[in-house]
Amino acid sequence: IVGKSGAGKTTLLRFLLREDTPTKGRVLFQGRNVADIREAELPELRRKIGVVFQDYKLLPQKTAYENIAYVMEMMGGEEADIERDVLEVLEIVGLVDRADHLPIQLSGGEQQRVAVARALIHRPQVIVADEPTGNLHSSQGEEVMELLQQLNKEGMTIIQVTHNEKFAEYG
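Above: the chain's sequence. Below: its structure in token form.
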């Protein structure tokens, strides 16, 4: 999804995640109007959609490992499953060796890769990336785009929101 700042790109994502509802029209996910999904069903919808934010939204007092594990802990995951799955997604994003680092100890690109790992941890059907390269230097942005492209090649649906046409045409 490409458009200038203020065009409504992030608003569309908020509709998809049912954080807002449109006053006109419909947003469909897997054939269902998202606005019709009951409150009790929202956690299930949101587990199907992993979100990567421009500003990472990492918990500053938690390590990379703990930021990712936190999602599974909140879902009631078993400790053995959490350890296995967190290490697996850290491997996918190339950060096993940085697992014990706090966000402040990571580069911007590494922080964004932790955010991607956190989005992957519950095995969503779709990853939504809202300006995933917006706060990164060019080379770090390219690393994140390569990671998202690799996930897409492996079968993950990626919806990327950007105003950067270079990254919209990436790959």
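DSSP finds seven helices and five strands in the chain.
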